[in-house]
Amino acid sequence: MKIQRIEIQNFRGFDHFTCDLTDPCLIVGNKGSGKTSLMEALAIAAGSLFLGFSDIPSRNIHKEDVRRIGNEPGKVPTSQYPVEICCQGIVNGQEIDWKRTIEKENSRTTMKDAKKIQTIGQQIQKQSSAGKEILLPIVAYYSADRFWPNKLLKQVTIDKPGSRSKGYVNWLNPPANTTKLWNWLSWMEFSARDKGKPLEIFIAVKKAIADCSDNVQEVTYDFNENELLFQTRDRGMQTFWMLNDGDRNLVGMVADIAYRCVNLNPQFNAEAIEQTPGVVLIDDLELRLDSALEKNIMNKLRQIFPMIQFIGTTQSPLITEEIEPQQIVNLKSL
Q1: Residue 277 DSSP class
Q2: Alpha carbon distance 34, 19 (integer Å)
Q3: Sequence-distant (≥ 6) Cβ neighbours of residue 35 within 8 angstroms
Q4: With a threshold of 0.90, does the pTM exceed it?
Q5: 282 vs 144: CA distance, rounded Å
Q6: Average pLDDT over residues 128-157
Q7: How far apart are CA 36 and CA 26, in angstroms?
Q8: What is the phi/psi pair of residue 191, to 5°?
Q9: Residue (of 307, 265, 42, 252) closest to 165 by Cα position
Q10: What does the pLDDT look like over 160-214, one tens digit per residue?
């Protein structure tokens, strides 16, 4: 799955805007230029796949997404309609276009022009539920509000692998998935002990986590303490919760993406991380990262997850330096 082009009208601060999207793609611009608004529109676009799922919610156009004009003193701002998000892309090997719209005030987001992607969603969920080893694309949005907590909010329990659609749970708010991720890690460690050797899929996830930061040398899981442990170059052995905010957010995001990949496509076993395609949106790529991590983040993500289209936003020149000019969408202030 890839999004190749998006066109939006009357969405937040955008009157009308169109851009082509590469793989990967970096959206740059000053504060207030519309980077987050474009990412929210892309979340609506990518999440349209879930219109065909019975148990995973899509992202609709909300009231606060409607563009308003007329902020002069004494005047009441007026909402502008229609609000449209039009896309072209490749979904399940098919080149298609789809559109989500709010046509007028107090109306709902339409699905009539998104039948193609809705039908594809229905088909892949049906085939997956029937046990067919079809390829499921990852779809996830890591907003600028993402923050992995410095402790688990719920008790960890052993969680056996279940429905492949678990890889889509909380796709709009991945940090809310932290306990599910830890439950899965507990099950992997339990299975490794029971079989007398670690599972290949578990080794692959831990390797993906270790590869995301040059400061991390090795990743292990302490089953008794329910702790993900990191052998770091600068501070020795640390738990996930002891990492600084930047490392914890990057490690948490990479661990979450890897977890989703292996749940969505278990038929690939350890190769699921490298074989899973899809669209991952990351707003504010440099969030809480130090300069060393900033400089290599897009390359690191592409190396670990080579089949995923990463679309991210940034104001950091360190990140834009590692991307080809044709892979950058430069927004002007609205």
Answers
A1: -
A2: 13
A3: 27, 28, 29, 283, 313, 331
A4: yes
A5: 8
A6: 79
A7: 12
A8: -65, -40
A9: 265
A10: 556 898 899 999 998 888 888 888 888 888 888 888 887 899 899 999 998 988 8
